[in-house]
Amino acid sequence: MTATAKDHWHPVLDSQVLKDKPVGVKVWNSEIVLFRTAGGKVSALEDRCPHRSMRLSKGWVENDKIVCPYHLWKYDGEGKGQSPCNPQMKPRVQRYDVTERYGAVWVKPAESNAQMPEMEVEGYHYVGLDTGIMYAPFELVVDNFIEIEHSPTNHGVFAFDAQGITQVVPKVETVGDSIHVIYEGDQRNIPWYSPTQYFMPQNTRLIIDFMAHFRPVHFIYNMRWQDPKTQELKPHRIREFAFLTPVSEEETHIHLFFFSTLNLFSPQSFSPLRKLVSSRFLKMAHDEFNLDKNIVEEVARTDKRTDLKGLQLGKFDRVLRETRRLISSAYHQGPLEQQAPPEPVQLKATGTTGAQD
Ligand code: FES
Ligand SMILES: [Fe+2]
């Protein structure tokens, strides 16, 4: 068995988008149709009718079956079909495992025994899910999520101060098949009149401590703020789970799940205010995402190569080589069973490589 993108659970759609009409999604060029039965159950099948290759996502749902719009053959959630004009036939469509968690629809191939990634959120309240698309190769999107040097120029709030970034020393360590990264620096100043101040305490040190996992590729960011004089941590923390789903060589989908320690987001809090603040937070997060999207897509238009050859890499970019290795291991090659986990490697935290490999 070889490791490919298809071996992992990936979030593919905001659950709220899947209503009574089928929706087509893609994971690494595999086209999948999602549909919700009248009873609310979600199913996932290959998005191609085995009769004459019509796209099933162009069809509709009748009770617990999806109907192909070309000749009205129907398929249940297991992929078992029936043909009105050929009742003796037993057509079949490949099915996928599917589940709904944390406000998203997730899929994996039925033959894979991958574990669903767990989100450890004790002490946190769910704020919401933000989704987006970057028209860029997977590796270029991953690069943007793992380095922070762009934050003063390209972010409004989840960011370090422009001067402060020069003082940030990235701490990067490979742990098995994951990477642990810590960035610490001055929180960027936000105008006093901005409600965003409520989430990002001012005159503090921002500590972004995160793990990058690769089966599937996702980042677990822990954001904390520290009083620079007393070293005391502010009570408010944000935890963000960023899942990157490779769609094709030129398209990557992103699902961002946000959690906060603020009691305001507790299900017990005053609901209208919670909804208002959650939507404000998600709007802010989406604006931040769009800033990244613009820059990553611009890079992709300039150069789609992902191999780092000829690039002059700085201290924040050292980690990119490691991400290439781990993406390759988890998504492009195998066999999984024969791979021994690598020894933890301490990467140097400072200096520039200036390497042109
Ligand atoms: S192509 Fe789907 S029923 Fe004919
Ligand atoms: Fe960014």
UniProtKB/TrEMBL annotation:
Give the organism the record lists: Stigmatella erecta
Question: What PANTHER family would the database entry show?
Answer: BLR4922 PROTEIN, IRON-SULFUR DOMAIN CONTAINING PROTEIN
Annotated region (Disordered) at: 332-357
Domain of life, per UniProt, equals: Bacteria
- UniProt-recorded name of the protein: Vanillate O-demethylase monooxygenase subunit
Location of the Rieske domain? 9-107
Keyword flag Methyltransferase: yes
Gene Ontology molecular functions: 2 iron, 2 sulfur cluster binding; metal ion binding; methyltransferase activity; monooxygenase activity
Asked if Transport is a keyword of the record, the answer is no
Q: Write out the entry's keywords from A to Z.
A: 2Fe-2S, Iron, Iron-sulfur, Metal-binding, Methyltransferase, Monooxygenase, Oxidoreductase, Transferase
Q: Which SUPFAM superfamilies does the record cross-reference, listed alphabetically?
A: Bet v1-like, ISP domain
GO process terms (BP): methylation
